[in-house]
Amino acid sequence: MAAILPGYEYDIFISYRQNDNKYDGWVTEFVNDLQKELEATLKTPVSVYFDENPHDGLQDTHVVDESLKKKLKCLIFIPILSQTYCDESSFAWQHEFLAFNEMANADELGMNITLVNGNVASRILPIRIHDIDADDQQLFESITGSALRAIDFVYKEAGVNRSLKPEDDKKDNLEQTSYRNQMNKVAHAIKDIGTSILKQSKGVDVPTTPVEKHKTSSTNQVKNYLFIGFMTILLLLLGYWGYTRIFNSSKAIYSEKKSIAVLPFTNMSSDKEQDYFCDGIAEDILNDLVQIEDLRVAARTSSFAYKDQGIDIREIGDKLGVSTVLEGSVQKSGTTLRVTAQLINVADGYHLWSKRYDREIEDVFVIKDEIAQNIVKALAIKLTSKDVQKLEKVKTDNVEAHDYYLRGRDYFNRFHADEVLLSIPFYKKAIAIDSSYALAYSGLANSYTFSFMFIDNHPENLQRALSTSKKALELDPELAEAHASRGTALSQNDQLEEAEYEFNEAIKLNPRLYDAYYQYGRALKSKGMHTKATKQFKVASEIEPDNYLPIMFLASCYQDLSLTDKMLEANQQTLRVIKRHVDLNPDDARAFYMGALALITDGQLEEAVVWAEKAVALDPTEIGVLYNVTCIYSRLGKTEEALNYFNQAVESGFGSKEWVENDSDLDNIRNDPRFQAIVDKID
């Protein structure tokens, strides 16, 4: 029996390098186990082509003939991706993978199949058995036109990169995957694609009676048949012919829950210094999407925490509480740019939309706009006139200025004193190229304010923050970020009333701008206005639930208000968020000293000291570390250690006397004469 559709020789074609089967017969075992899994998943036959004999049939050393082309006429192509599969000189690559890719793109079904639920899946279903080289992945993606989305059968330990076996213990595998579960994923992926192919090919006579398994003795090729009647029944149950929900060409999913996480785009360039550019494109898209009223977007701090973590998209989506995830890659070479983007449905891991852009660098703005527009179409979002106005707003049309802005923002986002200082010249270069670039002025103002607060409290830094934030507003009075920057600078200049006005304007323009709420809360807290500050920190925490800072400041406000129950509840949430964060970011000194403060509140005093010392070890001269370790030792009643770190913080440039005066963490050392002597050093 041939495939389930007339005109196709097989349902599934297994492509692999013979060397990957010689050592332990892994591919043969995989195919045999797949047969069993399909039998447990479906009820009737599909045919599988698998050439097991290394001395017969279609091998690396044999000449291509018409028989191979005929066998490649299949519905689903499964390449076994090893460390040697992506070899342009190999038989499997040239005459199987490339040939099928060309054939599938040209035949009546096409390469991409719309699934029953409206998502999109490729007829190429990669099985990855080794971590492959970046160049090999890039080669694969250049042919398919989308990021590699494989089902992994990889076992990893320190120095180990081999194929996953049935007997391997999930607990010992750094990938945390089990052979049995991965096999089940393959079977269900085949089921979903096969069912949807039948739906797409309506009117085709589909066999409904079982056919016995058949093996061709001359070539020792295995043709395995599993039932398809279940697929047909499933389609009927779905009421395909009378189904009222119509999926249009945009591959839209219709759901009341429209939510997305934007992951950092992978840097496919040879220059790893281009990470800032890849992250910047993703963040720009995120910032555009967050403006859309009918779309919930996971915060940057939440989604970017998964950079380079190697976690499955569906797991990331579940953890972030979103229904879709946008991922992509960027390859920048000279003046040319290749960007791939794909929108993934978290429920099943299939593509809702994907595209590859090969453009000149000057087209980067167009690419970002098109990606955002395609996401809107794929999720069937109806844009309001205000949404359209925000999306069409041009921040700058100068590619070089935008590049310098991305560099500056990348350094600022690291929130480390030295790197915040490095952001300043890049913002200045962006402004020098485009003097009307309001967003760059806003970024520069934030860097100056941060410098004044945590690095060098010289009045000149504050004056620069005030003047640049004012310039940003003059250039674009409708820029929410500019109002937030202005409010932050004014709050440091003891102009709370004016600052409040700016924060409220920022919130009106962009109700989901985290910085507006967070900085507003800090400004209120510094004035001892704790009740009012709690409202701002609550909203900030709702916008960025994986950011430990707002929930921690909320707990601090409750403590200052003597609301013990609420304080303890917020503190527990702080600990949960911080522990998740340090698991993903073990070198973040700020997270460790903030975590130490939360541990003290929780009564874990010895553990708090361990975390505090970890922060100092990671970054022994950073002002934020020195000041917060002061607070830790003050709360622990260790006066000498607290005063030592406090003196270091002030001598290093800590400059917010008002914050010190209202910080209850310092109450235990406040009456020590040495404390006041150190405070007097702050200008």
Verbal overview:
The structure is a single chain. By secondary structure, this protein is α/β, with parallel strands linked by helices. It is built from 28 helices and 17 strands. A seven-stranded mixed β-sheet has the order 7-6-3-1-2-11-10, with helices on both faces. Strands 12, 13, 14, 15, 16 and 17 form a six-stranded mixed β-sheet that branches. It has a two-stranded antiparallel ribbon with strand order 4-5. The radius of gyration is 29 Å and the shape is elongated.
Give the arrangement of secondary structure elements:
Elements (H helix, E strand, L loop, with lengths): L9 E6 L3 H4 L3 H16 L6 E4 L14 H6 L2 E8 L9 H16 L5 E3 L5 E3 L4 E2 L5 H11 L6 E2 L1 E4 L2 E4 L15 H22 L13 E3 L4 E3 L5 H9 L21 E4 L3 E2 L7 H15 L6 E2 L2 H4 L9 H8 L3 E10 L2 E10 L5 E10 L3 H15 L6 H8 L6 H14 L4 H17 L4 H17 L4 H17 L4 H13 L3 H14 L4 H13 L3 H14 L4 H13 L3 H21 L4 H13 L3 H14 L4 H13 L3 H13 L5 H5 L11 H7 L4
Parallel strand pairs: 1-2, 1-3, 3-6, 6-7, 12-14, 12-15, 13-15
Antiparallel strand pairs: 2-11, 4-5, 8-9, 10-11, 15-16, 16-17
- First-residue to last-residue Cα separation: 87 Å
Rg measurement, Å? 29 Å
Main sheet attributes: strand count, strand direction, barrel closure:
7 strands, mixed
Low-confidence stretches: 54-62, 203-256
Principal-axis shape equals elongated
Identify the strand order in the major beta sheet. Answer: 7-6-3-1-2-11-10
Strand content: 5-15%
DSSP E strands, number: 17
What's the helix count? 28
Percent helix, as a range, is 40-55%
Give the averaged pLDDT, no decimals: 84
Structural class per helix/strand content?
Answer: alpha/beta
